[in-house]
Amino acid sequence: MDTHLTKPVDTSSTDLGRRVRAARQAQDLTLETASRLCGVSRSTLSKVENGLMSPTFDVLQKIVLGLKIEIGELFGSTPKVSASGRRALTRKDEGQRHAYRGYQMELLATDLAHKAMLPFRIRISAHTLDAFDDWGRHEGEEFLYVISGSVCLYSELYAPTHLNAGDSLYFDSRTGHAAVSTSDEDAEVLWMATNADLPHTPPATIDSAKK
């Protein structure tokens, strides 16, 4: 899921791009070197830095692992590390926002560094798989809980799974996946992913699931 939008997106993507570039330059890395470390193409990284592409979670995870930074840093927060008794309070609508195609994502608990999991509150505006070019896939595990509306989670290995408000699903992130809203309105979900630091699996096409 490395290449998608090629025109200016929203302000949040522009800000995120500036922070990616600042993190790369702070380590005195060329675009070419950084792209190799992150495992994304030079073209993709350049588009992200220039606000021409709204990166998927997969690409964001590759960037933070490759540049050895916290994902919260890309959203303008300054994560804090505490030896024990950690906690993070996120008030309603005060998370760090990031939009990607059919997902309007709000990253929660951004003031904690080195979290074992990344919690998102996501509004799923995609109602068909046509909103996506490829499967989402990365190392780790995920948990999806439907807050409102209804959702269908498509997967490489399983039949489409339909979820209503109150339903939840735990699954392997390495299995290609994509979620769409099946209700008239956009669906709202709590989506949690483990903060893995292992190599990524190359993406596969989603075309077969659209048929």
Automatic annotation (TrEMBL):
Alphabetized Gene3D superfamilies for the sequence: Jelly Rolls, lambda repressor-like DNA-binding domains
Parts forming coiled coils: none
Boundaries of every HTH cro/C1-type domain copy: 20-74
InterPro entries: Cro/C1-type_HTH, Cupin_2, Lambda_DNA-bd_dom_sf, RmlC-like_jellyroll, RmlC_Cupin_sf, TransReg_Diox_bact_type
GO cellular component, one term: cytosol
Listed SMART domains: HTH_XRE
Domain of life: Bacteria
Single GO MF descriptor: DNA-binding transcription factor activity
Alphabetical UniProt keywords: DNA-binding
CDD domains according to UniProt: cupin_XRE_C (cd02209), HTH_XRE (cd00093)
Name of the featured protein: Helix-turn-helix domain-containing protein
Organism of derivation: Paraburkholderia antibiotica
